[in-house]
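// run 5 | inverse folding | seed 20
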């Protein structure tokens, strides 16, 4: 099933498109303008123009794409949906929203046939070769995830059993700054302004720094503990090993 999903995703990436003058059906790509309102107030980051949306891919919250089926170019529609309770933005999770949508274009998408020609376009000879390559890649990915989880558990155990002296404020502050910048980057990727995000969570930037302190201390301890183990066990990487890893 995992292999089939990857193959289907690859076919979608290589789909051909052509504009059509008909109602939207599942599988089409619609170019839309939309705006989101909660309690009649426009949602920050909830507006977009000329947004490409493949109907049925689940890019939007549940029910959104279904509402577009049957609409034609230049048609508009208003509808209400409830954001999932587990939505990434806590401030609107579980809340009812009103959407205003206008369809600008409708494109019919045709997926390439799953045959040896498709495999050749990916540098392989046959569909069987393609499936085997995908299966091998997925296996490596899952093994990597399992190893990463094991590493996290191992490091946590090491920290719990290690004794640390007083941690320099400069290290903790530096790590806190990194974590804050990572959060800012994630907020930006969600289409939100940092100031709006702070307003949503009702916190100042300094409050966020304080919230990160405990995790920053843990990250500093992790770095120090691993560094000390490398020194104690005389663990080092050669230039050849570094180049081999970069090549891999």
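// decoded
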């Amino acid at each position: 099933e995992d292999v089939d999903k990857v193959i289907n995703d690859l076919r979608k990436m290589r789909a051909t498109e052509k504009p059509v003058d008909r109602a939207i059906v599942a599988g089409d790509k619609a170019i839309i303008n939309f705006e989101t309102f909660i309690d009649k107030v426009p949602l920050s980051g909830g507006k977009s123009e000329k947004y490409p949306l493949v109907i049925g891919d689940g890019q939007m919250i549940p029910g959104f794409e279904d509402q577009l089926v049957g609409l034609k170019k230049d048609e508009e529609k208003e509808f209400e949906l409830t954001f999932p309770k587990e939505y990434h933005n806590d401030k609107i999770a579980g809340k009812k929203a009103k959407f205003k949508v206008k369809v600008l274009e409708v494109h019919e998408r045709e997926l390439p046939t799953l045959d040896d020609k498709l495999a050749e376009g990916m540098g392989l000879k046959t569909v069987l070769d393609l499936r085997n390559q995908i299966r091998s890649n997925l296996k490596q990915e899952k093994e990597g995830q399992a190893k990463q989880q094991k590493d996290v558990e191992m490091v946590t155990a090491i920290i719990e059993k290690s004794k640390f002296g007083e941690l320099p404020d400069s290290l903790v502050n530096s790590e806190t700054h990194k974590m804050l910048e990572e959060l800012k980057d994630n907020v930006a990727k969600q289409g939100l302004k940092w100031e709006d995000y702070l307003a949503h969570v009702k916190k100042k930037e300094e409050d966020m720094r304080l919230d990160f302190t405990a995790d920053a201390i843990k990250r500093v301890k992790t770095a120090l503990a691993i560094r000390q183990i490398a020194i104690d066990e005389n663990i080092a990487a050669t230039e050849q090993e570094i180049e081999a890893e970069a090549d891999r």
